[in-house]
Structure formats: structure tokens, C-alpha cells
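Schema walk-through. Below, the input block comes first and the output block second. Nothing else is stored per chain. Lengths vary across the set, and this one has 206 residues.
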Amino acid sequence: MIYNYETLPDNDNLNNYSYCLNVVNQMIITKGKMIAYYGMLRFEAIGVNLLDLIVQESLNTPRYGNNFVVVTGQGKLVLGDRACEIASYDLEDAHLTVKASRVLAFSPSLICQESTLSGYLTFLGTGQLIASSNGPVVFLEAPAKVDPDAILGWADLPSPSYHYDYEYIKDVFSAVGSLAGLKKSGEERQLNFTGKGTILIQSSEQ
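--- output ---
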């Protein structure tokens, strides 16, 4: 199928690997994730002109602030992320934490903060969040322990802690590897989620 402005969907996937966002006012997107657009849209870096007024409440991430641009105007914006699967999450009074490298776009109505766990962003409030993943997302109920490479994020849960399976790594080679700072597998080290909430995992670690 060949799409045009009229046939592109409003806020829906074109396929598993691309998403069409209907922009009517403002949207915050990650740099490099726009692959095409129709309409009168402007892309401006944060800190330019009046854009600070748009993001001053929603973007509270000094480490990641330069990763984002503000899209203003009206039009249809197609997003992609290295042929990864893309999904949209309609959040309502939410507390959702997502791996920062997987965030594609979010509504300015959401508050975006840095998580206490490095490499993750926490979104609070009501609005739309678009994120990518390695394969379809699977939702698990906490408590559970998960391979860190398989984690996409978590909802309504405190930040996890690391759990080490010493029975698995007690042999001499693994112990030496740990002291040398070598990367551990998911069988040796996991993120331990406690409490009641939902864990988002990716179907593929790579």
C-alpha cells in the first residue's frame, strides 16, 4: 500500500516497525527517530525561544535533555527505530519507567524525570508515550527477577535492586571474571522487582 496524508492512520502503527503520530499542537520526540512527515511541522531544539515554556514542567532530565526536540504545528509524523518494534502507551495517572534508549516520543502533558536506576526515564501523569523494543513486549506481574538486558521498563513499582546468583558463579573462573569486571549473564545477575505492579520485558535481549 502507498500512503499519503489522507490514508495515513492517526496515532497508529503502519507496521510493527513504524508509527504514525498525528501532531495537532506539540509533541516531544527523540532526535533521529523521525523518518518522514506531512504537514506544517517544525522541529526545534529545547531552549529555543518559547519552547522552554512548553517543556519546563514536562522535561526534568538534565542528563537526557539534549536527546529531545519539540515538534510543533499540525501534521502527520512517521517514527522508526532501527527496525525495532514500536508500541504506543496511553497513560492515565501513570507511574511508568522505561529504558531511555527506547523512548521515541511523549506528550508534553507527561512529566519526564530521570530514574534512580541509571539509563531509565520515569513518566508521571496522563498522556501518550511511544517506545520501541527488541521484539514484542511481554507484561509480567511483580514480584519477579528479570535479566537486565531483557528489561524495557516497569509500572507502579519501586526501582529494582540487583540480585546475584552466587550458586551459579561460585566456581573459580566466574569469580575471577566478576573481580575483573566482566559482563555477567542474566543467569548470574538479575533485576529484583518487589511489590505489586507490572514489568515490561522485551522478547529478545539483543
